[in-house]
């Protein structure tokens, strides 16, 4: 494979017969591919050169993790239900040895009882409170009953009677569940596509980390166990999310310079986690209690300073990526994420700068927090969607996806009507009404197919949707090509299907020497395509374009294009040149003609094609390797093993379908003398030209291989001995035109055998092949003995 990287000497014009076949190359000038590699490759063994598929199944560990997440969510729901019955609605914080009430939640029992904020909570039911951890056990003891809170207000004690308990916040749970589903879905989809791009893998880890965070929002004080450990776990999880996000965003659209430094990704995780761990140890007085640095750390933790700083760092990274992205598509991708992350950053900053602390504990803040949490994955998803790396239909069945959408469309009017009805009639409480109406809407949305079908029509007609489908179709095509055998078949399918998928005038696949030359799939106009591959008078040479140096797709037709050759190609209808690379090695190019729809290909389409070309490169590398293994490097004919495989195939067909065939052993006469007189180089030249001359006489079905030194084996499917003799006679005549240096003619002796003469079903394929060859060989020696330059055969006796 190595040698082909530099030898990109395959001229596009070679189909027009301009090619000078170098030794070992298959002359591409011949339109009759009788013995060229493509037809021969049709019988490749399936699976022998299979390429790894890009898409992977979801690993069992990830599935188990998703189940764990759902389990944690159930635990969260139970916790919410249990702890809501003892909720007072006060937000407390330790301040030295005191516990201070820093905020009162909206509509909470504390607010209704008139508990003021910014006081010290001295006791509950007469039991002194010294730590925030003392509160929950006391409330649990008096579950369902009123409690007396003793507050210290400006050195004056005051008792307030409060009845704990609020309705469980199902709305927040539903939102949490929604966020969880979004993140798990993104994680799974990204894992499935992780072979394509490392960014998707990164996105998967980030999504799972957020999902874990969402499911572990638990009122831990309700449960026995170490609160400090829980807080530590949550803090570290939050830092991990930021590190993952920082890593992910530093790679969109292209890796930022710092990500290219050695060990940088590892450093990001290790440093951020260990720093935060240190902060945590200091802030919770686990080490150096009471020191200034410990107090500072506590301030950092209490005010979310580190997370806000992270948010700002992430924001700066995005701005940097936006301004340094070279291509518009890169900027667009960053823009999506920026738009989705800005509300979250603003909300976090409001935490610091809004003087009214109760804002942070208000219902509005909780709602905004949930929505900004949802916005970020939606932004990232939109970016990934615009990359076309993920296919949503892999994740959800198409109809289910549209049913959900139909549900959402119905939800607004439907919820209003159903909920109002239930609420007004006062049969059922408000939270249950929401659940019930949601379920009703889901059922309606799923079964209401007219709306679903209308949505399909509306959305799938949109150009972005078409592009999304193009991505999916290209991936499918790449997979199908991977499963295909036979280079000619691959080329035919690739060019014709690609032309139809891209609605293009035509597609040409040009592979480097060592593989057969360009194939074209013609769209409506043959003329332009003919020009790219040099079929018409304007000869265009690939060497002049230096396509082997092309690393990214080349979009022709820019107004400022200075290269006259590229301008010419564009005038003739070529619009895109996409290189095929594997591990930095240039394998060939895909040339895409202009769109029949008369629009220019968008950058997304170009990007999709580029991804597609990367996907199929491995396939062509395999084909290249296979062709090298199959063909004799001197003559370009099949090697002995390959031609014997073809012979065995014919025997098998004969046994199945009784299709007659013949073989011929062709041997150059007095070749030793040629070598002795003119040298081995001249001998080689004669061998190459003899092979080419013989090949030109053959039809598409005939196969010619180099059996040994100057001896060739010809397999002729469908020809009986008479037909084979006729063909071989022509080969013998043609050889006479091939002159040695001294002007003497090249002659050959040929022995022919037909399968019916040696057929024996009791023999194995290999034995049968040898028997037939032995018969042809016997006749070859007969021809030699009778004076050379003749053919020898026998017509089978008809009974
Ligand atoms: N130049 C060159 N010579 C080869 C190659 N392979 C085999 N030969 C030569 O082909 C010659 C075959 O000689 P012989 O088997 O005696 O046959 P011959 O001289 O053709 O005589 P007849 O078969 O009786 O006509 C030998 O001299 C080999 O060295 C090759 O790849 N290149």
From TrEMBL:
Taxonomic superkingdom: Bacteria
Transmembrane segments: 60-78, 173-191, 203-222, 228-249, 261-287, 307-324, 336-354, 374-390, 402-424, 430-448
Annotated segments matching region Disordered: 19-49
Keyword Magnesium among record annotations: no
Enzyme class: transferase
E.C. code: 2.7.7.65
Reaction catalyzed: 2 GTP = 3',3'-c-di-GMP + 2 diphosphate
Keywords: Membrane, Transmembrane, Transmembrane helix
SUPFAM superfamilies assigned to the protein according to its UniProt record, in alphabetical order: GAF domain-like, Nucleotide cyclase, PDZ domain-like
Domain GGDEF positions: 659-796
Phylogenetic lineage: Bacteria, Pseudomonadati, Pseudomonadota, Gammaproteobacteria, Chromatiales
Protein's organism: Thiolapillus brandeum
Cofactor needs: Mg(2+)
Protein name stated in the entry: diguanylate cyclase
Pfam families for this protein: GGDEF (PF00990)
Keyword Membrane recorded: yes
InterPro entries: Diguanylate_Cyclase, GAF, GAF-like_dom_sf, GGDEF_dom, Nucleotide_cyclase, PDZ, PDZ_sf, Rev_trsase/Diguanyl_cyclase
Any one GO molecular function term: diguanylate cyclase activity
């Amino acid at each position: 494979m190595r040698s082909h990287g530099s030898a990109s000497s395959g001229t596009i014009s070679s189909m027009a017969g301009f090619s000078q076949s170098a030794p070992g190359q298959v002359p591409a000038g011949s339109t009759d591919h009788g013995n060229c590699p493509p037809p021969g490759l049709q019988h490749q063994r399936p699976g022998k050169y299979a390429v790894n598929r890009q898409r992977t199944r979801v690993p069992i560990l990830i599935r188990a993790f998703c189940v764990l997440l759902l389990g944690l969510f159930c635990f969260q729901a139970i916790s919410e239900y249990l702890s809501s019955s003892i909720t007072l609605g006060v937000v407390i914080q330790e301040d030295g040895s005191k516990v201070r009430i820093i905020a009162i939640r909206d509509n909470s029992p504390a607010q209704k009882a008139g508990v003021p904020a910014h006081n010290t909570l001295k006791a509950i039911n007469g039991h002194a409170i010294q730590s925030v951890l003392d509160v929950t056990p006391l409330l649990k003891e008096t579950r369902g009953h009123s409690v007396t809170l003793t507050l210290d207000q400006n050195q004056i004690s005051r008792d307030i009677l409060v009845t704990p308990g609020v309705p469980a916040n199902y709305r927040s749970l539903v939102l949490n569940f929604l966020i969880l589903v979004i993140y798990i879905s993104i994680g799974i989809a990204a894992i499935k596509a992780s072979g394509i791009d490392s960014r998707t893998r990164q996105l998967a880890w980030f999504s799972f980390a957020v999902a874990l965070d969402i499911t572990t929002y638990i009122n831990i004080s309700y449960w026995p166990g170490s609160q400090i450990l829980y807080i530590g776990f949550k803090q570290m999880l939050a830092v991990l999310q930021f590190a993952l996000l920082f890593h992910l965003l530093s790679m969109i659209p292209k890796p930022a310079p710092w990500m290219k430094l050695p060990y940088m990704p590892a450093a990001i995780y290790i440093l951020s986690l260990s720093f935060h761990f240190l902060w945590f140890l200091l802030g919770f007085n686990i080490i150096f209690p009471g020191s200034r640095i410990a107090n500072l750390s506590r301030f950092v933790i209490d005010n979310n300073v580190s997370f806000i700083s992270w948010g700002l760092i992430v924001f700066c990274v995005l701005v940097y990526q936006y301004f340094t992205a070279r291509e518009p598509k890169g900027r667009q991708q960053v823009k999506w994420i920026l738009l989705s992350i800005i509300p979250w950053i603003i909300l976090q900053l409001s935490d610091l700068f809004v003087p009214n602390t109760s804002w942070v504990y208000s219902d509005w803040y909780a709602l905004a927090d949930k929505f900004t949490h949802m916005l970020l994955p939606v932004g990232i998803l939109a970016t990934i969607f615009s990359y076309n790396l993920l296919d949503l239909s892999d994740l959800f069945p198409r109809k289910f996806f549209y049913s959900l959408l139909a549900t959402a469309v119905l939800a607004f009017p439907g919820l209003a009507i159903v909920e109002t009805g239930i609420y007004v009639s006062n049969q059922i409480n408000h939270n249950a009404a929401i659940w019930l109406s949601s379920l009703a809407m889901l059922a309606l949305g799923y079964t209401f197919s007219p709306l679903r079908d209308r949505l399909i029509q509306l959305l799938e007609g949109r150009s972005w949707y078409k592009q999304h489908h193009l991505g999916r179709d290209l991936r499918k095509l790449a997979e199908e090509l991977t499963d295909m055998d036979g280079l000619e078949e691959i080329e035919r399918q690739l060019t014709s299907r690609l032309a139809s998928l891209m609605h293009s005038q035509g597609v040409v696949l040009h592979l480097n020497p060592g593989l057969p030359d360009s194939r074209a799939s013609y769209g409506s106009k043959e003329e332009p395509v003919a020009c790219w591959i040099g079929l018409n008078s304007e000869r265009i040479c690939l060497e002049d374009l230096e396509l082997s140096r092309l690393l990214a797709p080349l979009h022709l037709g820019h107004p400022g294009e200075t290269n006259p050759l590229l301008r010419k190609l564009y005038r003739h209808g070529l619009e895109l040149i996409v290189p095929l690379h594997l591990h930095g090695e240039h394998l060939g190019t895909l040339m895409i003609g202009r769109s029949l729809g008369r629009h220019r290909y968008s950058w997304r389409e170009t990007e999709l094609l580029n991804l597609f070309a990367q996907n199929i490169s491995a396939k062509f590398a395999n084909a290249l390797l296979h062709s090298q293994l199959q063909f004799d490097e001197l003559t370009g004919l099949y090697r002995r093993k390959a031609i014997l495989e073809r012979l065995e195939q014919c025997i098998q067909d004969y046994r199945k379908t009784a299709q007659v065939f013949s073989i011929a052993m062709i041997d150059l006469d007095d070749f030793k003398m040629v070598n002795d007189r003119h040298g081995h180089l001249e001998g080689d030249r004669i061998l190459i030209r003899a092979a080419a001359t013989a090949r030109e006489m053959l039809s598409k079905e005939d196969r010619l291989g180099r059996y040994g030194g100057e001896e060739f084996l010809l397999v002729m499917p469908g020809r009986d001995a008479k037909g084979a003799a006729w063909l071989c006679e022509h080969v013998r005549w043609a050889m006479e035109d091939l002159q040695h240096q001294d002007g003497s003619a090249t002659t050959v002796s040929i022995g022919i055998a037909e399968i019916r003469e040696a057929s024996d079903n009791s023999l194995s394929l290999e034995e049968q092949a040898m028997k037939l060859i032995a018969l042809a060989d016997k006749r070859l020696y007969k021809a030699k003995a009778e004076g050379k330059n003749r053919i020898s055969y026998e017509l089978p006796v008809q009974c």
